[in-house]
Amino acid sequence: MDADNNSSLEAQCLMSGSQLKTNSNAVSSIHFAGEVCVEQTLPNENESFSEMVPLEVCDYQQAFMVSQFEHRYLIDQKIEDLLDMAIKCRTADGSVDSSGMSLLLDKLEEIDNTDDALIKFTEAVLGGVQVKLQKNSGGGAKGRSGAAIYFVYDGSAMVAVCKKFPTSEELVRELSSLSRLRKPEFTRFKIPAPLAAAKIKDSDYAGVLVSRVAQGQSIADLIDSITKATTISARKNILNQLQNASVDIARALAELHTEPDSSGVFALRSYLIESINRARRLVSVVAKEHAKLQDIVDLDIDKVHNQLEHLIEECLCEQSKAAIVHGDAHPGNLFWDSTAGVTFIDTPSLHYSMDSMGKPIGTPERDIASFEGRLVELCRKAGISENESKSFRNSFLKEYHARNDASLSEKKLKFFQLRFALGELVQACNNERLKDIQEAIVSLKQILGWKN
Description:
Elements (H helix, E strand, L loop, with lengths): L8 E2 L19 E2 L28 E7 L12 H9 L10 H10 L1 E3 L3 H11 L6 E5 L11 E7 L2 E9 L2 H14 L7 E2 L3 E7 L6 E5 L5 E2 H6 L7 H27 L10 H25 L7 H16 L17 E4 L3 E4 L20 H17 L4 H18 L6 H22 L2 H15 L4
Parallel strand pairs: 2-3, 4-9, 8-13
Antiparallel strand pairs: 3-5, 5-6, 6-7, 7-10, 9-10, 11-12, 12-13
Helix pairs in contact: 1-4, 6-10, 7-8, 7-11, 8-11, 9-10, 9-11, 11-12
InterPro entries: Aminoglycoside_PTrfase, Kinase-like_dom_sf
Protein name: Aminoglycoside phosphotransferase domain-containing protein
Pfam families: APH (PF01636)
């Protein structure tokens, strides 16, 4: 996969139990004995485009899964050993070392593709406590990949999250990224503690990772909560939280981009090339949809293509500054708590931004464009005024620049913003949602400087 997380919708909705709203009339437990019913939310032909697309708020399956059989797994591999092995899966150009990946996968426990097997594995990971699983049955701006997410409950408390990965490589990249993010040089953010991983037999999903729950709530959820505020004071409180969260996230990303050794030296050209190739593929997909689009919207796809190519040419003329980057710093993948601070989730793309020694080779503009552009877009959709959202954006950028002396490339920022907007348009076309298509085109035109 390229410098992007190929799979999207990494609905890593790692949220606290208090945030998961449950229908009071829902059945408390339902026994499943068959295979896990996990539908692929995105068609295979579109997987490579989905990662940068914000999706709708998650819907939660209200039925719980509890185990009916007695087999218990014995966890004979330690997560620390797996994280160490994941380090050996890194390469000089940010790809995945196939031999290192094979060695790591050979060490994993293998579980059956059933609900019972997943539950019993999770119970073994958590020390034998009986748990029930609740599947996130929808997508969401909270996280984004082809992964399937299960919330793990001990009684009424959410204690862990199970994440099923569509490919073995993505699981390995996640472990590699988590290993790097656990280094003591990082103090401005946290990651949900990984607990164990396993392979899955005869499944569309290659493996599963069990992790602790992220503290707080995602910025996407915090923005969405403004729509539920019933009083002026409640709305003001949420806006204040967003202001504080924007500043804390700026500090966290600045630390990620500058603290590692060799940050600020020259980035690998291939890292940017991968994103360029992705953008070109996205334009190609939009062009194929153009016959349908031109009947309902005004979009000059040839003009889009020409401006993209001109922007690419300008970006390639610049030397990029190196940084380790999150890779999908969407507001849904950045959690915030007033006490615990910032937590990163959904990090397999970070693997692409470091070499075999864990040193930076990526470009920081990718993270900044991803967060600040989508922050403004989500605020607009939530009914937050332009002035208010601009305040969050300006606070974020001001704090980031105060902590990162290296100037960002305006051309690369615009390129990544355009690439993300193209991805949103592709996703909207895939889903055949006219409103989403129109909103994506509005964003696209704004980035290109066109009049709507």
